[in-house]
Amino acid sequence: MMLGGFLLRWIFNAIAIYVTTRIVTGIRLPDIESVLIAALVLGLVNASIRWFFLVLTLPLNILTLGLFTLVVNALMLYVVAAVTPMQIDSFGAAFLGALLIAIISTFLSHLSGR
What we know:
This protein is mainly alpha-helical. It has one domain. It contains six helices and two strands; from the N terminus they run αβααααβα. The chain has a two-stranded antiparallel ribbon. Helix 1 packs across helix 6 and helix 2 packs across helix 5.
């Protein structure tokens, strides 16, 4: 059951990343295999180091009522781009991309009932 949930989240992230690369001109991936790799790495990054950055930036997050989390998400997207074929042109593109990925994957999760 746990493996099924992981696979479903991986697919949702892959769909979200693919859609984001089609909408945000500053984020590119060369092929579908790269999208799947980027989705896997994003899941691993979010599970492993994102919490550290959220704890580290907790005062800023409290001050901005949680909006600084969007900046942390954009930085995590840069980490993914550093180890995958993903190309990000600017911080604005990373910010918009992270926001769009979060919205799409959350929507898909709610649509599936997870």
